[in-house]
């Protein structure tokens, strides 16, 4: 038994590479998975109270017990068709524990069957400007959350924009002070001058684009 193989459903720019159930099954088939002999299902982790579900995972378990997990791109919900072919919009939570057959038909927990499931993915803007990326980088450092939001790929450290939405900033003025104290020290490409002063409105707009919200009553080192 090889354990669980984890596949990421987005690229380095946090753009989806798997946009529907059919593409996920094609990926499994390309890895040699026998969809008819194994079991395939979806899991949607329960979000924090008051927040919508944005994360889902597709699992495949072979007859030998080997398992593959596909971490799907962030999504707001799914569009599908009923057994009669009528289009239907569903919440992501509706797909938790849904069973998937080899043809891409899904049986939901409530007994309903749907097919042709397409993900309504959350798209991230890009490319980011050097200044916007510097603001996000220093926001992560202000939270002391590099272990959560930074990913190393072939010795290059990148920001994982796909999960920035779990961060909540309690005080933008304090964050702006931290950013302006450190942004001039960030390394830049040869020939480019150091970053200068960054206004609070610019910081706020960047946080909004990245999906980082504001919340009162928490210390900055609490990210979820």
Question: How would you describe this structure in keywords?
Answer:
224 residues, alpha+beta, 5 helices, 13 strands, disordered C terminus
Shape: elongated
Q: What's the average pLDDT? A: 86
Strand content: 25-35%
- As residue ranges, the low-confidence spans are 217-224
Number of strands: 13
Structure description:
By secondary structure, the chain is an alpha+beta fold. It folds into two domains: 4-121, no CATH class; 130-214, no CATH class. 22% of the residues lie in helices and 26% in strands. The strands form three sheets. Strands 1-4-3-2-7-8-9-5-6 form a nine-stranded mixed sheet, with helices on one face. Helix 2 packs across helix 4. The chain is elongated. The two termini are 35 Å apart.
Put the structure in a nutshell.
With 224 residues, the chain is of the alpha+beta class.
Summarize the topology.
Elements: E1 4-8, H1 21-30, E2 39-43, E3 57-61, E4 67-71, E5 75-82, E6 87-91, E7 99-100, E8 106-107, E9 113-121, H2 130-142, H3 146-149, E10 150-153, E11 156-159, E12 168-169, H4 172-182, H5 200-210, E13 213-214
Parallel strand pairs: 1-4, 12-13
Antiparallel strand pairs: 2-3, 2-7, 3-4, 5-6, 5-9, 7-8, 8-9, 10-11
Helix pairs in contact: 2-4
């Amino acid at each position: 038994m090889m354990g669980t193989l984890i596949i990421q459903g987005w690229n380095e720019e946090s753009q989806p590479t798997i946009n529907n159930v059919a593409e996920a099954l094609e990926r499994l088939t390309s890895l040699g998975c026998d969809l008819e002999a194994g079991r395939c299902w979806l899991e949607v982790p329960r979000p924090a109270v008051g927040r919508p579900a944005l994360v889902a995972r597709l699992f495949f378990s072979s007859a030998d017990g080997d398992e593959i997990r596909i971490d799907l791109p962030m999504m707001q919900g799914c569009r599908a068709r009923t057994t009669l072919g009528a289009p239907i919009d569903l919440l992501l939570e509706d797909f938790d524990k849904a069973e998937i057959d080899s043809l891409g038909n899904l049986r939901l927990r409530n007994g309903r069957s749907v097919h042709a499931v397409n993900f309504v993915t959350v798209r991230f803007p890009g490319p980011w400007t050097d200044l916007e990326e510097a603001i996000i980088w220093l926001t992560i450092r202000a939270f002391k959350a590099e272990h959560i939001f930074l990913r190393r790929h072939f010795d290059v450290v990148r920001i994982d924009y796909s999960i920035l939405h779990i961060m909540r900033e309690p005080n933008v003025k304090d964050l702006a002070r931290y950013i302006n104290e450190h942004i001039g020290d960030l390394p830049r490409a040869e020939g480019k001058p150091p970053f200068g002063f960054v206004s609070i409105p610019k910081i706020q707009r960047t946080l909004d684009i990245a999906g980082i919200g504001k919340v009162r009553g928490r210390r900055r080192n609490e990210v979820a």
